Amino acid sequence: MFSTEQFSAFAAHHGVLSLDELNGVGLSDAQVKRRFASGLLSRPYPRVYQLTAVPPSWIGDARALSLSAKGVISHRAAAYLWGFDERQPEIIEATIAYRRRTRISTAVVHRSKQFDLVDEHEIDEVAVTGPARTVLDCAGVYSRTELGHLVDAAIRSKVLDWPDLYDVYIRHAAKGRNGTGKLRLFLDERYGDRRVPDSRWNRMVGTLLEDAGLGRPAYEHEVRGIDGHLIGRVDLAYPDARLAIELDSVRYHFNHESFVGDPRRKNALQLAGWTVLTFTWSDYVDSPQQLVRTVRSMLTNLNR
Q1: Spatial contact of 15 and 43, defined as CB atoms under 8 Å apart
Q2: What does the pLDDT look like over 167-197, one tens digit per residue?
């Protein structure tokens, strides 16, 4: 009743395929219905079918849920798939875009206004939230002790690191997401004043600005004079507007060369017609929305 290709497709996907995937291996909607009616296929969720010859499994159910909901497995289930939490949850959770509707009533499906930030990955043929987003989601449902174990496991796995967690916190907090406070308190306690590498911080701020709709800034941009000589290299820049953004890490740099050279470089940039904005780590962590508003306002003024 199934071709070798079709059996292979089921075997490679935990015995679970969506209707679209079945169409892709040569089964029409009518053929799928006949095989369902004959008992060769079961339908765990709308528009998703399981080969009845394959015993049901947790991973197969997770795949079926993500396919039917057109979303990603999230929260505790995602933590289990990433290996951050060894406890296999009885209830599988998924996250979908806020404006989507679903007919699924037998599983937990979260509707997210920040679905564009789920950072979709695939683990064992299952769509799942990215590692940092998974930690953020779990921060809202785990106890303080559970969250500590989760983060420890995530860091040990080397799938993410501390700057990744600050990055996901800021990107969601800047859009007003509830529940980020718990992760922030945890990060402040566990990470403290340890330094985020400058290159990572540049990317984190650039991503924040891009998420806010300001366009992608140029990184480590070289500003040159009319004769081609190098005036200075800036952390971030919007060259068309001649706007430079400097990220001040003076709290970590106590050498005389930086103390003297940075103001001189800023003066040279301004004399060359560039506007320079400077932000600190505190600006990024404590007031990301104000940081975005400042850059937006300056770009608006410069582009008039």
Answers
A1: no
A2: 999 988 866 666 688 898 898 888 765 667 6
Distance between CA atoms of residues 143 and 55, nearest Å:
34
Domain boundary among 38, 56, 74: 56
Same domain, residue pair 246 and 136: no
Residue 3 is encoded by which pair of tokens? 């071709």
Cα–Cα distance for residue pair 286/304, rounded to 1 Å: 30
Q: What is the residue-wise DSSP string for the chain?
A: ---HHHHHHHHHTTTEEEHHHHHHTT--HHHHHHHHHTTSEEEEETTEEEETTSPP-HHHHHHHHHHHHTSEE-HHHHHHHHTS-----SS-EEEEETT------SSEEEEETTGGGS--EEETTEEE--HHHHHHHHHTTS-HHHHHHHHHHHHHHTS--HHHHHHHHHHHHTTT-TTHHHHHHHHHHHTTTPPPPHHHHHHHHHHHHHHTTS-PPEEEEEEE-TTS-EEEEEEEEEGGGTEEEEEE-TTT---HHHHHHHHHHHHHHHHTT-EEEEEEHHHHHH-HHHHHHHHHHHHHHHT-
| Signed CA dihedral, 253, 255, 261, 263: sign only | positive
Task: Name the residue range of residue 222's domain.
Answer: 198-302
Both tokens assigned to 7? 């059996």
User: What does the alpha-carbon distance between residue 46 and residue 247 come to, in Å, rounded to a whole number?
Assistant: 50
Both 224 and 298 in one domain: the answer is yes
Question: Whole-angstrom Cα distance, residue 96 to residue 75?
Answer: 12
pLDDT at 248 over 70: yes
Total count of domains within the chain: 3
Q: Give yes or no for a contact between 299 and 238, defined as CB atoms under 8 angstroms apart.
A: yes
Q: What percent of the chain has pLDDT over 90?
A: 67
